[in-house]
Specification:
The protein has 6 helices and 11 strands. It is α+β, with helices and mostly antiparallel strands. The protein has one domain: Glutaredoxin (3-Layer(aba) Sandwich), CATH 3.40.30.10. It is globular, with a radius of gyration of 16 Å. About 18% of the residues have low confidence.
């Protein structure tokens, strides 16, 4: 069992990570797009400066060619690791935020897409602004998901998952991941469910 000191340290670290990521994903129109941000830093173990503004078409997963080891939980409390990708030939990963109207607006269409997908394809959401330590925001996310009819899981941000989404500068950002955890093609920035469908069909056609 974790001691109080360790739990406080973990909560402080996740709070700083969330603050940095939130600086990257403030809300705009076509997508919830980042504005130039001031320097944010954790005096204990990290420092990061953000200077670029995202637009649709930016390489939002620059430097992330594949998912390595991570562990987090979904909104139902289930532990999720990188092994989730091995369960299907293809995973559509949708990174979203509770503050982002386009993210929320596309969810009913994502729920419909999820129903139409073949058995070897799955959708997974990743929340860019909610960690397991933020129960109030987690409950808000559950309400959003319930109201939209989404059945697929959404993962909470954790320290080990953070590096894989920290370069994303606008949400929603959606990309494909194969069964080995490799990111396929370019990310799709902004709400465009038909583009997700088309990209998934193109990849499956090559199998």
């Amino acid at each position: 069992m974790k001691g109080k000191t360790e739990m406080r340290k973990e909560k402080r670290t996740l709070t700083v990570l969330l603050a940095i990521l939130m600086a990257l994903v403030m809300c705009a129109l076509a997508a919830c797009t980042a504005k130039p941000a001031e320097e944010a830093q954790d005096t204990q173990d990290m420092e990061e400066t953000v200077t670029e503004e995202a637009t649709d078409g930016d390489d939002n997963t620059a430097g992330v060619a594949s998912f390595g080891a991570f562990e987090t939980a979904d909104l139902d409390g289930n532990v999720v690791t990188e092994a989730v990708f091995a369960e299907k030939d293809l995973t559509i990963v949708n990174v979203w935020g509770t503050f982002c109207d386009p993210c929320i607006g596309e969810m009913p269409d994502l729920a419909a897409l999820d129903e139409d997908l073949p058995d070897n394809v799955q959708i997974i959401g990743i929340l860019c602004d909610v960690s397991a330590l933020d129960q109030d925001e987690a409950e808000n996310a559950r309400t959003i998901i319930h109201n939209s009819g989404v059945q697929y899981p959404s993962l909470l941000l954790s320290k080990s998952l953070y590096p894989y989404v920290s370069r994303i500068t606008a949400v929603p950002t959606t990309f494909l991941v194969d069964s080995q955890g490799n990111v396929i093609g370019e990310p799709i920035v902004g709400a465009d469910v038909e583009a997700y469908r088309t990209a998934a069909e193109a990849y499956l056609g090559q199998l």
